[in-house]
């Protein structure tokens, strides 16, 4: 039996156990998927082996750490600089990133995006920046502190208070603001200027109307939350966990069924 898990801080909101367990059941595989609330980043590798996991999805704020602790690092994950999927093979940890491909699948009906702004500079922001780069979209990353922006030297980057260009047709919030509070990712005056120009928005948090999404609605910006990204990155991670191919539609259907369960 494969023992799988999602690891993060916080993690109680995660729907990953629901979608993965339903896919395991639907495809007749031998495995179980649960969640673990980790608070100490340095314990991630020890925890993986202590729990005797075969694989894990890594969520905020440990995606960069997940890449660091891996023995074998997928080229895609290395280019992004973070990993959201760990798989045990021959007693070695393999790191992958399925966030970028999952994100692109989630927004494939957002057409004619030419210029995008990413709020936040963590592991998820790296994945999304890499994904948007593949679509040759002009990109800017804005963050609270300069230190995190060191990871985005290949892009235009700026701290929030120095942002002078507000003309973006797509805005992505990758911060955890609104997950356990009613905070916006940055000053509302800045978001007012940005969203008044935007056509599309994306919130990586799912399952709740965050203050960011409420503001998007106020400005009549077409938006999505992170549920579809969760679905697709989950499909791609599931393939890695069980080393299966050509089953994406079956996996997706099972996961969608789980999401639609009351």
Automatic annotation (TrEMBL):
Domain Shikimate dehydrogenase substrate binding N-terminal: 6-86
Gene Ontology, cellular component aspect: cytosol
Binding site for NADP(+): 204, 226
Keywords: Amino-acid biosynthesis, Aromatic amino acid biosynthesis, NADP, Oxidoreductase
Catalytic activity: shikimate + NADP(+) = 3-dehydroshikimate + NADPH + H(+)
Domain Quinate/shikimate 5-dehydrogenase/glutamyl-tRNA reductase, residue spans: 113-164
Family: Belongs to the shikimate dehydrogenase family.
Subunit and interaction comment: Homodimer.
Identification of the protein by name: Shikimate dehydrogenase (NADP(+))
Source species of the chain: Campylobacter cuniculorum DSM 23162 = LMG 24588
Gene for this chain: aroE
